[in-house]
Amino acid sequence: MTQDSQLDVRELIPRDRHTQIFSTYQALEPGAAFILVNDHDPKPLYYQFQAENAGEFSWEYLEEGPEVWRVRIGRTTG
């Protein structure tokens, strides 16, 4: 098993964050994942994934604030 890469978007301009996150997701092989590190709950991002990639991703909170949120986002094999 390989270790998931980490994408820390806290230093990015907010308008650029989703573009970088979706680019990272699209580059994943099926079954792979990355760890998103953010400075707020990325719940709106989850809803965007649901709208655009329903059934094709996994979402697992690893840390839920109050200052840092870490979410494992994966590309499913099915």
Summarize the structure.
By secondary structure, the protein is an alpha+beta fold.
Question: What does it look like?
Answer:
By secondary structure, this protein is an alpha+beta fold. It has a single domain, classed as TusA-like domain (Translation Initiation Factor IF3, 2-Layer Sandwich). Helix content is 31%, strand content 32%. It has helices at residues 14-26, 43-53, and strands at 5-8, 33-38, 57-64, 69-75. It has a 4-stranded mixed beta sheet, covered by helices on one side. Strand 1, helix 1 and strand 2 form a beta-alpha-beta unit. The longest helix is centred in the N-terminal third of the chain and has 13 residues, at 14-26. It starts with a strand and ends with a strand. The model has no long low-confidence stretch (mean pLDDT 94). Residues 7-75 form the DUF2249 domain. It holds the Pfam family DUF2249. This is DUF2249 domain-containing protein. InterPro entries: DUF2249.
**Strands, total number:** 4
Major sheet summary line: 4 strands, mixed
| CATH level-four homologous superfamily name | TusA-like domain
The topology string of helices and strands comes to: EHEHEE
Helix content: 25-40%
Gyration radius, rounded: 12 Å
Structural class: alpha+beta
CATH top level?
A: Alpha Beta
CA distance, first residue to last residue: 19 Å
**Overall average residue pLDDT:** 94
Number of domains in the coordinates?
Answer: 1
